[in-house]
C-alpha cells in the first residue's frame, strides 16, 4: 500500500494520463474522474474502443492503450479480472505508473508491473487523493 508521500509524488510528477474504460456518460465515475483530472491540469487521453475517434477532454478517444502514445500513468476503470491485461500493456508502452481504481485489485498484475519498474496504486481514486492531499 503506497503511503501518502508516494501518492503525492506520483500525482505531482505525472502529466499525461491514459484513462482506460472512459465513458462518455456524465453520470459514470470514469467520466467524472477524467473531467476532474483534466481540470487539475493533467492531459487525459480517453481509452474506449466503442468511442474511438470521438473528441473528449480536448483529445481524440483511442481504442487501445497502445494508441494513446507516450503516457506517464494508466488509470484503469475496468473490472479486476480485466486489469491484468491493461497493466501488462502499460508495461509494454513504457508507462511509469499503473493506477487501479476503487474496487479494482489484481495482485498478480501489480507484482508484474512493479517487477517491470512501474509504480502501482490499487483500489484508490486520484480524484479522492488529490483533494485529500491538498494538491
Give structural notes.
The chain has five helices and seven strands. With 135 residues, it is an alpha/beta fold. The longest helix is centred in the middle third of the chain and has 14 residues, at 80-93. The protein is globular and about 35 Å long.
Q: In total, how many beta strands? A: 7
Number of helices: 5
Distance between the termini: 20 Å
Low-pLDDT sequence parts: none
Q: What structural class do the secondary elements suggest?
A: alpha/beta
Alpha carbon gyration radius: 13 Å
Widest sheet, order of strands: 2-1-5-6-7
Largest sheet: 5 strands, parallel
Round the mean pLDDT to the nearest integer and report it. Answer: 97
Beta-strand level of the residues, as a percent range?
15-25%
The 3D shape can be described as globular
Helix and strand pattern: HEHEEEEHEHEH
Helix content: 25-40%
Amino acid at each position: 500500500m503506497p503511503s501518502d508521500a508516494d501518492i503525492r509524488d506520483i500525482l505531482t510528477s505525472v502529466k499525461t494520463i491514459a484513462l482506460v474504460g472512459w465513458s462518455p456518460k456524465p453520470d459514470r465515475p470514469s467520466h467524472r474522474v477524467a473531467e476532474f483530472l483534466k481540470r487539475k491540469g493533467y492531459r487525459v487521453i480517453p481509452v474506449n474502443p466503442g468511442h474511438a475517434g470521438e473528441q473528449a477532454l480536448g483529445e481524440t478517444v483511442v481504442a487501445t492503450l497502445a494508441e494513446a502514445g507516450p503516457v506517464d500513468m494508466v488509470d484503469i476503470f475496468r473490472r479486476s479480472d480485466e486489469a491484468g491485461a491493461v497493466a501488462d500493456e502499460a508495461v509494454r508502452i513504457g508507462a511509469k505508473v499503473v493506477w487501479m481504481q476503487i474496487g479494482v485489485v489484481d495482485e498478480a498484475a501489480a507484482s508484474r508491473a512493479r517487477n517491470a519498474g512501474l509504480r502501482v496504486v490499487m483500489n484508490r481514486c486520484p480524484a479522492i487523493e488529490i483533494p485529500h492531499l491538498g494538491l
